[in-house]
Amino acid sequence: IATLTFLVTNIDDLLILSVYFANSSYKTKNIVSGQYLGIAALVAVSLTGVFLGTLFNDRYVSLLGFLPILIGVRGLLSLVTTRTRDDEDDGVREQKSRFQFLSVALVTIANGGDNIGVYTPLFATIEPGLVFVYVLIFFLLTGVLCLTGYWLVSHQRVKNIFARHGKIILPVFLILLGFFILKGFFL
After folding, report:
1. What is the 3-state composition of the chain as percent helix, strand, coil, each rounded to the nearest 5?
2. What one-character DSSP code corresponds to residue 25?
3. Which of the pair, 112 or 141, is modelled with greater confidence?
4. CA separation, residue 21 to residues 18, 100, 141, 162 (Å)
5. Which of the two residues, 157 and 53, has the higher pLDDT score?
6. What is the DSSP secondary structure assignment for residue 170, as one 8-state letter?
7. Which helix (H) or strand (E) holds 183?
8. Maximum Cα–Cα distance across the chain
């Protein structure tokens, strides 16, 4: 049950992770650590929800769609400013890459409304001793998800596409994802 639950609620993350892995400006360790941080946050909110009841209406959780939109817009703006300032110091670039994991984590959280909606009642209905087992399985499968996303973009054809267009694909994808998440607020 834990495996199926994780796969069903995170299959969309496979596409998101693949887009991140294909973007050469993102370091693999930042993508993986961001995904783990995002999943940990979703599990923590779900566990909190078990003890405190429903924290937020699903409609309001969809407002998290603004996070990927903001990250995507910031990415597009940085493309424009990078093109006009090619003399950017390598030290500044290194500083920016240290916090890439937060971008990945925030997108994982923003896209995780379905995770919270499924994990909270699941955790509430299983024996308390099994919650740890479920969480452990979720974290093991997060690693499998990251490996699969990395493997998908390791194919030469996919690599070539992202080498040419990857810097614009990620921000545009994040903006579209944000609007997809936001639709839950308006429908």
Report:
1. 85, 0, 15
2. T
3. 141
4. 5, 12, 17, 10
5. 157
6. H
7. helix 156-186
8. 58
The rounded percent of the chain whose pLDDT value lies above 90 is 29
Give the tokens for residue 125. 């209905």
Q: Is 109 exposed, middle or buried (0-12, 13-18, 19+ CB in 10 A)?
A: buried
Amino acid at 7: L
The residue among 175, 183, 184, 158 whose CA lies nearest residue 21 is 158
The pLDDT tens digits of the residues spanning 143-181 come to 999 999 999 888 888 777 777 776 788 788 878 877 887
Q: Which residue has the tokens 């639709």?
A: 183
Q: CA 8, 147, 175, 96: dihedral to nearest 10 degrees?
A: 140
Q: Is residue 87 pLDDT above 70, yes or no?
A: no
Q: Which amino acid is at 117?
A: G
Residue 97, both tokens = 């890459």
- What is the Cα gyration radius of the chain? 17
Q: Distance between CA atoms of 7 and 161, rounded to whole angstroms?
A: 27
